[in-house]
Design a protein that fits this description.
The protein is α+β, with helices and mostly antiparallel strands. It has 13 helices and 13 strands. The two termini are 14 Å apart.
Length: 323
Amino acid sequence: MTESNIPLAPVVILAGGLSHERDVSIRSGRRVATALRRVGHQVTEADLTADLVPLVTSGDTKPVVFPMLHGATGEDGALREVLGLLGVGFVGSSGHACRVTFDKSIAGTVVARAGMNVPEQVALPHDIFRELGARPLVAALGERLGFPLMVKPARSGSALGATKVESADALPQALVAAFAYDPTAVVERYVEGTEVAITVIVEGDDREVLPPVQIQPESGIYDYAARYTAGSTRFIVPAKIDQDARQRSESLSLAVVERLGLTGIVRVDLIIDGGGQPWFLEANVAPGMTETSLVPLAMQAAGLDLGEVCSRLVQAAVTGTGR
């Protein structure tokens, strides 16, 4: 909890950047900035430019940075390592934890090796695809994983470049779509079931698991359009799953957060199969906060105020108790 005798820290909300998710980032950052101002913080909204370093290092009181950058620049850990180098406090996971988590091929491997449910996957670099040709690789992937498959960039967010593949004929095009966003594609076995997102708020030794959000896109796939087009996806909070499945999902989410070393506001994406077993898909270190995003829905269902939660994490960054 925030110490009552510690003044509210000034905050720099970092949003925008040059990734394909720039618009989503700006919308997320604006919502967090509004929420923090409402609870009394002095807030500056900034983009990733040359003005950032003097902004966060000048003056007697350094602000706390709240990274809301989506995509590689904001989620691959590099920015947070720079902030640490400058001695600037920030909300959220460390650079190392972000680097591991953002790469789906690495995060999936780390989580699977810890004994948790992860769909079998293969990481395929573009160079290998180009040099060896599509035909032998498509045949091998189909034999190894079967169809349908999910194909997605190893390092990208908001489901950009992600495709469900029903047959071998569609696989080359799906790989090309993934390579448009990252040099490595992840091809994984498709798990049929109920897609849910679980938000975990990590502050020091405290863990708060929010109600699971069930995702029902009209198109059947929770792609970029389904995520950010109002009315294109139905969200059910709490998810309509039985108590055993909910407990398993919450336990898996906590285990993922611990294994990956994540802090702050974390969203863990899962799919629950027909037997009630949850499978880890990915984790998000800077989840969206737009009007159609999942974390604000979970907070509302839990009776939490976005501004108060974010303020608590900001103050924890000041005192060093956030991680």
